Structures are given as C-alpha cells and as structure tokens.
Amino acid sequence: MEKDLKFYNWKIEELKNEVKKAIIWQDNLVKSLLIALLSWWHIILEWVPGLAKTLSIQTLSRTLDLWFSRISFTPDLLPWDLLWGQIYNQAEAKFYTKKGPIFTNFLLADEINRAPAKVQSALLEAMQERKITLADETFKLDEPFLVLATQNPIEQEWTYPLPEAQLDRFMLKTIISYPTKEEEIEIMKMSFKDIEIKKIFTKKELIDLQERISSDIYIDDKIYNYVKDIIFATRNPNDYSIDKIWDYISFWASPRASISLIKTAKVNAFLSWRDYVTPEDIKELAFDVLRHRIWLSFEALWEDIRTDDIIRIILDNIIVP
Questions:
Q1: 150: closest CA among 137, 164, 162?
Q2: What is the mean pLDDT of residues 71-84?
C-alpha cells in the first residue's frame, strides 16, 4: 500500500521521541539534522565542545537503517585515511584496495577544521558528485550520503578554515545553543541511565519520503521570487534600498543558496505537517542557509557586524509575498 505524507509525519514524531531519549534539549539541532537528512545534503554544526553535537548525530543514526562512520579530523590526517587503504595479501603476494570510512551513508567529520586543506579537498568530489575516484577506478557512493561536520569556533590554533568552495557545499550551518537550567539538571540525571534506541526508518522508507517531499510539497511562484530577492539582495543590496550593508559584504550568496533555501523550506513545511511552503519557512531557514555563504568585509569585522546581522537586515527589508 502506498504511504502518504501523514504516515511519514507520524513516523518522524516517533523518531524524534527516540532521539529525545538521549538528547533532552537541542530541539533546533535535531530539526536541522532532520532537514539535512530529508534533503540529502550536508550540514555543519558549530559551537564549543560538550553540547551534544556528536551525540545527536550518533543517536539519529541509530534510529535509521543506514551505515555510520566517524572520523576525527586531526592535523596529521591524510587523504587516504579517508578514502582507501592498501592491504597486502601474503598468500597471493599482491595488494588489495580496502575502501575507507567515507564509503558510508552518515559520515561524521568531527572537528573538520583541524585537518589540512588536502584532506578537506578529498571530500569535495564525494560531497558534490556522490562518487570517489581511486587511481583509475570510480566508485559511486551509496544513497543517501551525508557529511555531518562539527567545528569549534573558539580554539583557532592549529586549525585550517574551510575554503569558500567547500563551505558552499554544505546546505546548512547550525549554531548550537546551551541548555536551560532545568535541562542542565535533566542532563545530569540522564548521564546515569542506559538508553536503548530503536530503529524507526528503513532505508527504503527514507528514499520514498525524500522523493515525496520533493514532488508533493507545493511552492508558489511568489515564494520563488521571494527567495530570488533575498539572494540578490546579498549581491546588489542597493537595488533593494539596503545601501548600508554594501560595504559589509565581500563575497555573496551563490545559486546553491537559492536551491538550498527551496529544498530545506519543503522539508520544513513537511515537518510542520503542511504540504505547501510559506514565507515563514524561508525566514526560519535563511540564517542556517546563508550564514556560511556570506563573507564579511574588513569594515564589517571592524564594526563588529556579524553575518546574522546582515541576514536580519535583508529579511527586514525584502517585501514578503
């Protein structure tokens, strides 16, 4: 029997309840992970250690019938640590190629900004084209393939900031928050519990849900125009009477930002039990989609202007359909 979106809405609620067994706060983080998962694209989670970034990804993976790999990105990591390894067979006196941890569905790239540029660039082909080239062979990665990266913005010694080309391949960049006082107490109590997480989604159901969201969630042309205006306001703010941010932006949002806003807005509508996208979906996701795609000028840094400030100004000045 064909399953409709309402069936999957209830399945997602069940999945959230499983995740909350281990993560009692961070609803925004869990929602961002679900949006990345159902969009089949990559996400960066940023803030200081100890805020359940890694635990959230691991817990979510346990609710899904998918392969999961974790790599701690360190300064001595090499590209082949990620992609492949050579194993020598003494009996046959020959080497065999063993696929690396990147051949998975969920790749947790822990502290991604601690690995050198040659390791970060090894991810580019996999992230964009879902394939890996080893010597003269090309291997297609299993679907879905998501890179879930974490980074610590506080400690910048011995780190390698991600280049613009790689940052643009991440659909979302979510900033993690601290728990409330009440949540802090619950976290301490939970640390002594042994928690069992059940699998909720099969791989086939995930693929079917992703296709249904893409085809069954309606977006009006007015929403497309709204997204277009937001993106173009980062490139030509004077055209939208936002002259004051012109000197603050040195690198503008690419067409990937437009595509990402549309894809994530569809998922957000589904998570809100709707089959259509509203301007509020766009507004809600604009910060996570744009904050790593707008590069600030020296003037902005000098005046302590943040990327989120720029996005807020743009949203406040673009006419909502």
A1: 162
A2: 84
